[in-house]
Specification:
Blueprint: E1 2-5, E2 11-14, H1 17-22, H2 33-37, H3 42-57, E3 67-72, E4 78-88, E5 92-99, H4 101-138, H5 142-148, E6 151-157, E7 165-171, E8 177-184, H6 188-208, H7 214-229, E9 242-250, E10 255-261, E11 265-269, E12 272-276, E13 296-299, E14 305-309, E15 317-318, E16 323-324, H8 326-336, H9 342-357, E17 366-372
Antiparallel strand pairs: 1-2, 1-5, 3-4, 4-5, 6-17, 7-8, 8-9, 9-10, 10-13, 11-12, 11-14, 14-17, 15-16
Helix pairs in contact: 4-6, 6-7
């Protein structure tokens, strides 16, 4: 589309392509017709005329910048034109325009889609943050754990906003104290949903049913979880489950009874480690296998320090070789921290993990419960 404007600001030439692009005969757009017919807004007419006169007053348009304008067709539709202007003979202004309507429409659709995706992302994040508050609400009050024992800490670091790891604490009327670190299938939203299920069945088995023996608790958890995840009789068996490190403290008898489902427990006594391996069966998986959960009971000694933990800390990649932190380093780290109070240990472990990880992303949820007698 070519338009020529004379020194008086009147259009003296419009190319025949105006018929195809705008639906007007070129003769209709001569003189003031160009300004009046292709724009329905007085402000737009005034602004474009003012720009045209400024350009006419210049000796040359050495650095003329292309600009876009919205025109109305004879049918009242919108057409976007990209203009390049230059000075012509006899102080005329020559505008060469290209129809970019399809491109502008595509850009608008892309913008609308972007806004829609941003809103969808915001709604999703708002939902996840709300789910995080719900998850935090069902977690035990850490201050109660610290008040119950001589010294204790809980290091809880979700990989995402919500976590598949869960810690459990219950001080029964009988005086028994139940402590558990639970690692559910997955992390993020799926893991968080599993952790809510885990919290529900832990309360059902320990608080409501009053089961006290750790191995019996694991059997009951296994049965309850399998039942909860396989309510629909469609023939499919859920492959979801959880690993559990469970300890029951009896401070009257001065004992701890432990049983684990794929999770160990660590004891530091006299600056040396005693590791209690978990049973080789998880909770919820392997429904067709006869599982065996065994409890171990030990006499407590003053300053015994116990650690219940999920696998997230040991599985974190980092260091110069980008390897896993692993159980060996974890035990060495805990041993080096025995002169610290438990709250200091929590900060030390958090710092050590960040230092190991550096720029590596967190690969899993982290949960460690430390208890000193």
């Amino acid at each position: 589309l070519i338009v020529v404007v004379n020194h008086q600001g009147k259009v003296e030439y419009v190319s025949p392509s105006a018929k195809r692009i705008l639906g007007f005969e070129p003769e209709q757009l001569m003189g003031e017709g160009w300004w009046n017919l292709t724009r329905t807004n007085d402000k737009d007419r005034t602004d474009i005329k003012a720009l045209t006169f400024r350009q006419l007053e210049q000796d040359s348009l050495i650095e003329a910048v292309p600009y876009e304008s919205l025109l109305k067709t004879a049918a009242g539709k919108d057409k976007w034109i990209l203009w390049n202007t230059s000075k012509g003979p006899a102080n005329t202004l020559v505008g060469i325009g290209h129809d970019i309507t399809d491109r502008k429409n595509a850009e608008q659709k892309l913008l609308e889609k972007h806004i829609e995706l941003e809103q969808h992302n915001k709604d999703m994040l708002d939902s996840i943050n709300y789910a995080s508050r719900i998850q935090e609400a069902i977690l035990p009050d850490i201050s109660k754990i610290k008040d119950t024992f001589k010294d204790a800490f809980v290091l809880y670091q979700p990989k995402d906003v919500v976590s598949g790891d869960h810690y459990f604490f219950h001080h029964a009327n009988s005086g028994l104290i139940f402590v558990a670190a639970v690692d559910c299938t997955g992390h993020g939203v799926p893991g968080a949903l599993m952790s809510i299920v885990a919290n529900g069945i832990l309360n059902e088995v320990i608080v409501k049913k009053g089961i006290e023996e750790p191995s019996e608790i694991l059997y009951a958890l296994d049965e309850e979880l399998f039942s909860a995840l396989n309510k629909k009789s469609n023939g499919g068996i859920s492959n979801d489950g959880m690993d559990v490190a469970l300890g029951v403290f009896d401070l009257k008898k001065n004992t701890l009874t432990y049983s684990g489902a794929f999770r160990p427990m660590l004891l530091v006594r006299d600056n040396a480690f005693i590791e209690f391996e978990g049973n080789r069966y998880p909770i919820g998986f392997y429904a067709d296998v006869k599982k065996k959960f065994v409890s171990q009971t030990i006499e407590l000694e003053e300053n015994d320090t116990f650690y219940f933990f999920t696998d997230g800390y040991c599985d974190q990649f980092g260091g110069e070789l980008k390897k896993k932190f692993n159980r060996k380093r974890f035990k060495e780290l805990l041993l080096s921290a025995q002169s610290m109070e438990m709250e200091e240990q929590e900060s030390f472990l958090s710092y050590a993990l960040k230092n190991w990880r550096q720029d590596e992303p967190q690969v899993d949820d982290v949960c460690i419960i430390g208890v000193r007698i």
